[in-house]
Specification:
The complex is a heterodimer of chains A (116) and B (115). Helices cover 0% and strands 52% of the residues of chain A. Chain A is mostly beta strands and 116 residues long. The chains are: A mainly beta (116), B mainly beta (115).
Chain lengths: 116, 115
């Protein structure tokens, strides 16, 4: 079974600084998708960034980028120029690409605090 | 795009009672998912619909849980004979099937408290 591990329960960063959130996963599949979701307090979960496993190029979305290391099964999220609105729970998630289960497997999350 | 809508936002019930939650997905999304999230944890998959067909159920979904999506639009999740361990946030999500990598769009969730 696929598993997703986020080893940092909490992280903090100073406003305008850069922070990296870690995620590792375990799978025997070669084709899959990886996602980072953000869940602000009492608000709905929203997609931050996604990566297709067949793509070697790391995904970027404005201030958010990933470091995808397929061999190491690592998928870290880098947030540059951190803003107060980035404070939230961040979840790493995995989904296989073809056939079988449609489920998205989530890690336990990392709580990010942004200090002014 | 009005987003995924869930009702009610909060539900308090006594142990042993039945509860039903509703989810209205984004209108053009044919895939609908239910997840459960407890405090300090990531969401756990419960079940998945493609149109009106329930194609996947987690082993977490005991026989007290049932979900339907009768016309391939809104969905309901019913919990019978609730237990305190059922207290959690129940999240609904939907996505389009047009792209393999399309992301899930989540609703605000229904928070269930069983007393």
């Amino acid at each position: 079974a696929q598993t997703v591990t986020q080893s940092q329960p909490e992280m903090s960063v100073q406003e305008a600084e850069t922070v990296t959130l870690s995620c590792t996963y375990d799978t025997s599949e070669s084709d899959y998708y990886l996602f980072w979701y953000k869940q602000p307090p009492s608000r709905q979960m929203i997609l931050v960034i996604r990566q297709e496993a067949y793509k070697q190029q790391n995904a970027t979305e404005n201030r958010f980028s990933v470091n995808f290391q397929k061999a190491a099964k690592s998928f870290s999220l880098k947030i540059s120029d951190s803003q107060l609105g980035d404070a939230a729970m961040y979840f790493c998630a995995y989904r296989r690409a073809q056939g079988g289960s449609e489920k998205l497997v989530f890690g336990k999350g990392t709580k990010l605090t942004v200090n002014p | 795009d009005t987003g995924v809508s869930q009702d009610p936002r909060h539900k308090i019930t006594k142990r042993g009672q039945n509860v039903t939650f509703r989810c209205d997905p984004i209108s053009e999304h044919n895939r609908l998912y239910w997840y459960r999230q407890t405090l300090g944890q990531g969401p756990e998959f419960l079940t998945y619909f493609q149109n009106e067909a329930q194609l996947e159920k987690s082993r977490l979904l005991s026989d007290r849980f049932s979900a339907e999506r009768p016309k391939g639009s809104f969905s309901t999740l019913e919990i019978q004979r609730t237990e305190q361990g059922d207290s959690a946030m129940y999240l609904c999500a939907s996505r389009t099937g047009q792209a393999l990598n399309s992301p899930l769009h989540f609703g605000n969730g229904t928070r269930l408290t069983v007393t």
